[in-house]
Amino acid sequence: MATIKDIAEKAGVSSATVSRVLNYDASLSVADETKKKIFEAAEELSYRKRTSKRYINQKIAVIHWYTEKEELNDLYYLSIRLGIEERCKEIGMNPEVYFFNNIKDINAAGIEGIIAIGKFSPKQVNDLTKINRHVVFVDYSPNEDKYDSIVIDFERATKKIIGYFISTDHTKIGFIGGRELLKGQKTPIEDLREKSFQMYMEENGLYNERFMFIGSFSVEDGYNLMQQAIDELGEDLPTAFFISSDVMAIGSMRALHEANIAIPERVSIIGINDMSVSKHMYPSLSTIRVYTEIMGEAAVDTLLERLEGRKIAKQIVISTKLIIRDSVKK
Hints:
The protein has helices spanning about 5-10, 15-20, 30-45, 70, 75-90, 120-130, 155-165, 190-205, 220-235, 245-260, 290-305, and strands at about 60-65, 95-100, 115, 135-140, 150, 175-180, 210-215, 240-245, 270-275, 285-290, 315-320, 320-325.
């Protein structure tokens, strides 16, 4: 496992700076470029290399539905992108990365295909296929009969979390989650973690609408929503929280620390993603491991299959694993 010192050496910064960045220290003033170096170093040091057939000098476009700055607030997508880039490096392919605000710069004539990371509207999907008919979507499936996609079964992941909480005698379980918006849209995309949480809690007779707090997938909203829960619920604060992303869990844990609410003695926390910073938090974060590097690898390999002649659309569902650390009672 990569240490804080390993990450600091690779990023060219101090161990103290790495520690504060990985924990999203709100009092730290550091450039986005420095944050990017640290996050990417942490991800790359945890990446497992493998050998494969080479595709020298072939180019693909990797299109991100976020801007580069937005990506720093949601490391889930950054990790997927790095998985794509690492797989391309292994096989000699050249990935050209475009963020949402510079898609217009794509050289359609110079690319073999497209990997699209994130959520895209029907019009955007159509626009992408006009650039190149070979498109693989990652973390989204606009039409599984038509387009290749790499996705996570968030319903199953949610059941793993709730099942663990119930098995450790929690009956008051809260939810802190986010919703995403397509660019230019006002109606949020349905979030399977939120939907599955409500469904599974209702099945077990444990659902309480007062324990649901919804915002966006960011450290700031994780912090604000947990503060709201503490203020509104007081002594009725749940003994456990399912937090639907690790970045939100970072903010939520900070709010609990500031309120002198002990983790996990008073409140247990489980997030989703197991991004590289999770193991460095205090206490270390229990979470669902989403194999984002495998998602990136699978996207590249799926695109290569298309380039080699496969005609039928394929959807690949990547499994997840519950990782228990110190933020829950065991």
